[in-house]
Amino acid sequence: xxxxxxxxxxxxxxxxxxxxxxxxxxxxxxxxxxxxxxxxxxxxxxxxxxxxxxxxxxxxxxxxxxxxxxxxxxxxxxxxxxxxxxxxxxxxxxxxxxxxxxxxxxxxxxxxxxxxxxxxxxxxxxxxxxxxxxxxxxxxxxxxxxxxxxxxxxxxxxxxxxxxxxxxxxxxxxxxxxxxxxxxxxxxxxxxxxxxxxxxxxxxxxxxxxxxxxxxxxxxxxxxxxxxx
Length: 229
Known about the structure:
CATH topology of the largest domain: Four Helix Bundle (Hemerythrin (Met), subunit A)
Oligomer: single chain
Structural class: mainly alpha
CATH architecture of the largest domain: Up-down Bundle
Shape: globular
Largest sheet: 2 strands, antiparallel
Low-confidence stretches: none
Distance between the termini: 41 Å
Strand content: under 5%
Number of strands: 2
Strand order of the largest sheet: 1-2
Helix content: over 70%
Protein backbone atom coordinates (compact mmCIF):
# COMPACT_ATOMS: atom_id res chain seq x y z
CA UNK A 1 0.00 0.00 0.00
CA UNK A 2 1.26 3.45 -0.92
CA UNK A 3 1.80 5.27 2.36
CA UNK A 4 0.64 8.51 0.75
CA UNK A 5 -2.88 7.05 0.44
CA UNK A 6 -3.16 7.26 4.23
CA UNK A 7 -3.84 10.98 3.95
CA UNK A 8 -6.86 11.00 1.60
CA UNK A 9 -8.27 7.81 3.12
CA UNK A 10 -7.89 9.30 6.58
CA UNK A 11 -9.87 12.35 5.47
CA UNK A 12 -12.55 10.05 4.06
CA UNK A 13 -12.77 8.20 7.38
CA UNK A 14 -13.07 11.57 9.11
CA UNK A 15 -16.05 12.23 6.81
CA UNK A 16 -17.55 8.95 8.04
CA UNK A 17 -16.82 9.89 11.65
CA UNK A 18 -18.66 13.19 11.28
CA UNK A 19 -21.59 11.31 9.75
CA UNK A 20 -21.79 8.96 12.70
CA UNK A 21 -21.54 11.93 15.07
CA UNK A 22 -24.45 13.60 13.23
CA UNK A 23 -26.54 10.48 13.87
CA UNK A 24 -25.49 10.13 17.48
CA UNK A 25 -25.88 13.72 18.66
CA UNK A 26 -29.14 14.84 20.23
CA UNK A 27 -28.65 18.45 19.14
CA UNK A 28 -29.86 19.43 15.67
CA UNK A 29 -27.41 22.33 15.50
CA UNK A 30 -24.54 19.92 16.11
CA UNK A 31 -25.89 17.54 13.47
CA UNK A 32 -25.93 20.41 10.96
CA UNK A 33 -22.32 21.25 11.86
CA UNK A 34 -21.18 17.62 11.60
CA UNK A 35 -22.76 17.13 8.16
CA UNK A 36 -21.19 20.38 6.97
CA UNK A 37 -17.76 19.23 8.24
CA UNK A 38 -18.33 15.87 6.52
CA UNK A 39 -18.93 17.73 3.24
CA UNK A 40 -15.64 19.60 3.68
CA UNK A 41 -13.86 16.27 4.14
CA UNK A 42 -15.67 14.88 1.10
CA UNK A 43 -14.29 17.75 -0.97
CA UNK A 44 -10.79 17.50 0.41
CA UNK A 45 -10.18 13.76 0.15
CA UNK A 46 -10.44 13.74 -3.64
CA UNK A 47 -8.31 16.87 -3.98
CA UNK A 48 -5.59 15.41 -1.74
CA UNK A 49 -5.68 12.03 -3.54
CA UNK A 50 -5.25 13.69 -6.95
CA UNK A 51 -2.53 16.04 -5.65
CA UNK A 52 -0.56 13.10 -4.27
CA UNK A 53 -1.27 10.89 -7.28
CA UNK A 54 -2.85 8.14 -5.17
CA UNK A 55 -6.42 8.00 -6.47
CA UNK A 56 -7.55 4.39 -6.20
CA UNK A 57 -10.54 2.08 -6.43
CA UNK A 58 -10.30 1.50 -2.67
CA UNK A 59 -10.54 5.23 -2.01
CA UNK A 60 -13.50 5.49 -4.37
CA UNK A 61 -15.42 2.73 -2.59
CA UNK A 62 -14.50 4.04 0.85
CA UNK A 63 -15.72 7.49 -0.14
CA UNK A 64 -19.10 6.11 -1.17
CA UNK A 65 -19.52 4.20 2.09
CA UNK A 66 -18.76 7.36 4.06
CA UNK A 67 -21.10 9.46 1.90
CA UNK A 68 -24.10 7.18 2.29
CA UNK A 69 -23.80 7.52 6.08
CA UNK A 70 -23.04 11.25 6.28
CA UNK A 71 -25.38 12.48 3.54
CA UNK A 72 -27.99 9.73 3.41
CA UNK A 73 -28.53 7.98 6.73
CA UNK A 74 -27.82 10.99 8.98
CA UNK A 75 -30.27 13.43 7.33
CA UNK A 76 -32.89 10.69 6.86
CA UNK A 77 -32.91 9.88 10.58
CA UNK A 78 -33.24 13.55 11.49
CA UNK A 79 -36.09 13.96 8.99
CA UNK A 80 -37.75 10.95 10.60
CA UNK A 81 -37.44 12.54 14.04
CA UNK A 82 -39.04 15.72 12.69
CA UNK A 83 -41.94 14.06 10.85
CA UNK A 84 -42.74 11.10 13.11
CA UNK A 85 -44.92 13.05 15.60
CA UNK A 86 -47.17 14.29 12.77
CA UNK A 87 -47.02 11.38 10.30
CA UNK A 88 -46.51 8.28 12.43
CA UNK A 89 -45.45 5.36 10.23
CA UNK A 90 -45.52 7.57 7.14
CA UNK A 91 -42.39 9.22 8.50
CA UNK A 92 -40.51 6.16 7.23
CA UNK A 93 -40.78 7.79 3.81
CA UNK A 94 -37.58 9.55 4.85
CA UNK A 95 -35.76 6.26 4.22
CA UNK A 96 -36.31 6.84 0.49
CA UNK A 97 -33.42 9.28 0.74
CA UNK A 98 -31.11 6.52 1.95
CA UNK A 99 -32.26 4.07 -0.73
CA UNK A 100 -31.94 6.61 -3.55
CA UNK A 101 -28.59 7.87 -2.25
CA UNK A 102 -27.12 4.36 -2.06
CA UNK A 103 -28.38 3.60 -5.57
CA UNK A 104 -26.91 6.89 -6.84
CA UNK A 105 -23.50 6.12 -5.35
CA UNK A 106 -23.42 2.55 -6.67
CA UNK A 107 -24.31 3.73 -10.17
CA UNK A 108 -21.67 6.47 -10.00
CA UNK A 109 -18.98 3.97 -9.02
CA UNK A 110 -19.53 1.82 -12.10
CA UNK A 111 -20.14 4.71 -14.49
CA UNK A 112 -17.52 5.95 -16.93
CA UNK A 113 -19.46 8.95 -18.28
CA UNK A 114 -19.68 11.24 -15.25
CA UNK A 115 -16.34 12.97 -15.58
CA UNK A 116 -17.50 16.32 -16.95
CA UNK A 117 -21.03 16.16 -15.55
CA UNK A 118 -23.17 14.24 -13.09
CA UNK A 119 -26.20 12.08 -13.72
CA UNK A 120 -28.59 12.58 -10.85
CA UNK A 121 -28.11 14.76 -7.79
CA UNK A 122 -24.85 14.00 -5.92
CA UNK A 123 -25.59 12.78 -2.41
CA UNK A 124 -23.50 15.48 -0.59
CA UNK A 125 -25.86 18.10 -2.03
CA UNK A 126 -28.77 16.07 -0.72
CA UNK A 127 -27.30 15.91 2.78
CA UNK A 128 -26.51 19.62 2.97
CA UNK A 129 -29.97 20.53 1.69
CA UNK A 130 -31.77 18.46 4.29
CA UNK A 131 -29.83 19.51 7.35
CA UNK A 132 -30.27 23.12 6.23
CA UNK A 133 -34.03 22.66 5.88
CA UNK A 134 -34.19 20.98 9.28
CA UNK A 135 -32.33 23.90 10.82
CA UNK A 136 -34.62 26.41 9.10
CA UNK A 137 -37.71 24.51 10.27
CA UNK A 138 -37.40 26.18 13.66
CA UNK A 139 -38.16 29.54 12.04
CA UNK A 140 -40.20 28.69 8.95
CA UNK A 141 -42.34 25.75 10.20
CA UNK A 142 -42.76 24.15 6.79
CA UNK A 143 -46.05 22.21 6.35
CA UNK A 144 -45.84 18.42 6.43
CA UNK A 145 -46.91 18.19 2.79
CA UNK A 146 -43.81 20.21 1.85
CA UNK A 147 -41.55 17.72 3.61
CA UNK A 148 -43.22 14.73 1.93
CA UNK A 149 -43.03 16.39 -1.49
CA UNK A 150 -39.36 17.24 -1.03
CA UNK A 151 -38.50 13.71 0.12
CA UNK A 152 -40.03 12.24 -3.03
CA UNK A 153 -38.49 14.92 -5.25
CA UNK A 154 -34.99 14.41 -3.87
CA UNK A 155 -35.26 10.63 -4.06
CA UNK A 156 -36.17 11.01 -7.74
CA UNK A 157 -33.39 13.55 -8.33
CA UNK A 158 -30.72 11.25 -6.89
CA UNK A 159 -31.89 8.07 -8.61
CA UNK A 160 -32.52 9.77 -11.97
CA UNK A 161 -30.07 10.23 -14.84
CA UNK A 162 -30.76 13.96 -14.99
CA UNK A 163 -27.61 15.68 -16.33
CA UNK A 164 -26.16 18.09 -13.77
CA UNK A 165 -23.11 20.32 -13.66
CA UNK A 166 -19.91 18.92 -12.17
CA UNK A 167 -17.41 21.47 -10.87
CA UNK A 168 -14.43 19.74 -12.44
CA UNK A 169 -12.49 22.31 -14.42
CA UNK A 170 -10.24 21.17 -17.27
CA UNK A 171 -9.30 24.84 -17.71
CA UNK A 172 -10.45 27.98 -15.92
CA UNK A 173 -11.44 30.22 -18.82
CA UNK A 174 -15.00 31.44 -19.30
CA UNK A 175 -15.64 29.47 -22.51
CA UNK A 176 -16.89 26.01 -21.63
CA UNK A 177 -17.35 26.91 -17.97
CA UNK A 178 -20.10 29.52 -18.36
CA UNK A 179 -22.74 27.68 -16.35
CA UNK A 180 -20.29 26.63 -13.65
CA UNK A 181 -19.29 30.26 -13.10
CA UNK A 182 -22.88 31.49 -13.30
CA UNK A 183 -23.90 28.99 -10.63
CA UNK A 184 -21.06 30.13 -8.37
CA UNK A 185 -21.71 33.85 -8.94
CA UNK A 186 -25.46 33.65 -8.36
CA UNK A 187 -24.93 31.48 -5.27
CA UNK A 188 -22.56 34.11 -3.87
CA UNK A 189 -25.13 36.80 -4.67
CA UNK A 190 -27.74 34.73 -2.82
CA UNK A 191 -25.43 34.43 0.19
CA UNK A 192 -24.87 38.19 0.21
CA UNK A 193 -28.62 38.79 0.01
CA UNK A 194 -29.21 36.46 2.97
CA UNK A 195 -26.58 38.28 5.04
CA UNK A 196 -27.79 41.77 4.13
CA UNK A 197 -31.44 40.91 4.79
CA UNK A 198 -30.61 39.45 8.20
CA UNK A 199 -31.97 36.01 7.41
CA UNK A 200 -30.57 32.72 8.69
CA UNK A 201 -27.20 32.16 7.00
CA UNK A 202 -28.04 28.46 6.62
CA UNK A 203 -30.61 29.48 4.00
CA UNK A 204 -27.74 30.01 1.56
CA UNK A 205 -27.34 26.24 1.13
CA UNK A 206 -30.87 25.49 -0.18
CA UNK A 207 -30.69 28.61 -2.34
CA UNK A 208 -27.37 27.48 -3.84
CA UNK A 209 -28.74 24.00 -4.53
CA UNK A 210 -31.84 25.35 -6.25
CA UNK A 211 -29.65 27.61 -8.40
CA UNK A 212 -27.44 24.60 -9.20
CA UNK A 213 -30.45 22.63 -10.43
CA UNK A 214 -31.78 25.59 -12.43
CA UNK A 215 -28.48 26.32 -14.17
CA UNK A 216 -27.95 22.61 -14.87
CA UNK A 217 -31.34 22.54 -16.62
CA UNK A 218 -30.57 25.75 -18.55
CA UNK A 219 -27.20 24.32 -19.61
CA UNK A 220 -28.91 21.24 -21.07
CA UNK A 221 -31.42 23.39 -22.96
CA UNK A 222 -28.55 25.52 -24.31
CA UNK A 223 -26.60 22.43 -25.43
CA UNK A 224 -29.60 20.90 -27.18
CA UNK A 225 -30.31 24.11 -29.06
CA UNK A 226 -26.69 24.27 -30.21
CA UNK A 227 -26.42 20.59 -30.98
CA UNK A 228 -23.90 19.82 -28.26
CA UNK A 229 -25.81 16.98 -26.61
